[in-house]
Protein: Glycosyltransferase
Amino acid sequence: MTMGNENRELHIIFFPFLANGHIIPCVDLARVFAARGIRATIVTTHLNVPYISRTIGKANINIRTIKFPSTEDSGLPEGCENTESALAPDKFIKFMKATLLLRDPLEHVLQEEQPHCLVADMFFPWATDSAAKFGIPRIVFHGLGYFPLCVLACTRQYKPQDKVSSYTEPFVVPNLPGEITLTKMQLPQLPQHDKVFTQLLEESNESELKSFGVIVNSFYELEPVYADHYRNELGRRAWHLGPVSLCSRDTEEKSRRGREAAIDENECLKWLQSKEPNSVVYVCFGSMMVFSDAQLKEIAMGLEASGKPFIWVVKKGGAKSEGEKLEWFPEGFEERMGESNKGLIIRGWAPQVMILDHGAVGGFVTHCGWNSTLEGVCAGVPMVTWPMYGEQFYNAKFLTDIVKIGVGVGVQTWIGMGGGEPVKKEVIEQAVRRIMVGQEAEEMRNRAKELSQMAKRAVEEGGSSHNDFNSLIEDLRSRAH
Ligand code: UDP
Structure:
């Protein structure tokens, strides 16, 4: 199929959930469509525009803004338009409730724009009905891959977690290839005191089943068994168009995803260039995770003891001024890292994809958010898996047990359950060594590099994701006529 003016006839509206880990892949997805000639518009609230504009870069994508409910209606403080400023559990629930009030403003935009399709995040369950009001299909985007989607669907349908007698008793996920064992402690834990979230997830599931289908951020070769299972056994209509992060091709695009970086990109590249290929460990726990002082100290000691050069992204302390000592650093840590040029600490937002894709990076310590998981795959690096919440335990299992490019730090408990004891420095040191040196590391690196090549082929002309894009456009076009 030739892509060009005829695609321009199609207009798609993208409506990302207001969290960095959802906004970034959704904007990347819109960029995938725009690059193939589709007219793309992103709808969001005012305060999220700067991050979205940065990520859009030079792509031909419009932004339409809608107003977030007033502080009176939402009960949220002024300026709270992203989950990053609503991390406390009570605030988070209020935030989720407030997003229900975005329905009318979104429908107003649909009325004005008359698009052919609405791609909306899973956290907007009402979006299927909104789209139906205007006679257009709604597609769901979770930003996830097939494996976590299959686990979520099977645990929801068969509820194996209700048949065990404790949080620690293992169960096998029914109707899922690969004998996947989990415990109740590793499943997303819903806040007990408020039914809003539980209800939202139920409605999200119902609206997904009623929707036109699901866009998956993955590529077929990464998880063929689960791609087939999701579509053929679980009966979902799905198109895999990923990895969407590969739409950023050059260093500038890679460094401009999400927030403004807390480090000068050139300084960061210069530091990386001074290191041997595959020698650096990149350590980052996503856009939201803030650790306790005790845990940060263990990480610092573990990284130092590993003897490997590292870039460590620390969300806590990001606001401190340069030169100011952080009380949780082990004695003399910053000085030793500075003198030996061994460690680069980024306090705040890091240009993650730019760093991961640099040839000096040889391993990634990750919380296993799906975006980070896939970005690690694209970079072809083995990973230390340190899951904490959401569906991260499933993604960690995928890396360690299925594609076998990950080594766990042994966490067993969802962070919302108290998170257990801090992971000790010896465990961190050992896990880092296992992905960086020796035969096991080399074998994992070889597998990771192969997957990275497959990912890149998947998004090129004739690749599996490129072809699935064509099928989706055919489906939308025949529906539009
Ligand atoms: N990210 C980044 N710099 C940071 C932290 C995160 O660029 O300092 C990006 C990362 O590349 C990924 C996204 O933010 O695309 C985080 O998504 P993920 O699913 O990994 O985790 P979440 O933040 O949703 O827990």
About this structure: Residues 20-21, 24, 257-258, 284, 286-288, 313, 349-350, 352-353, 369-372, 375 surround uridine-5'-diphosphate (CB under 6 Å).
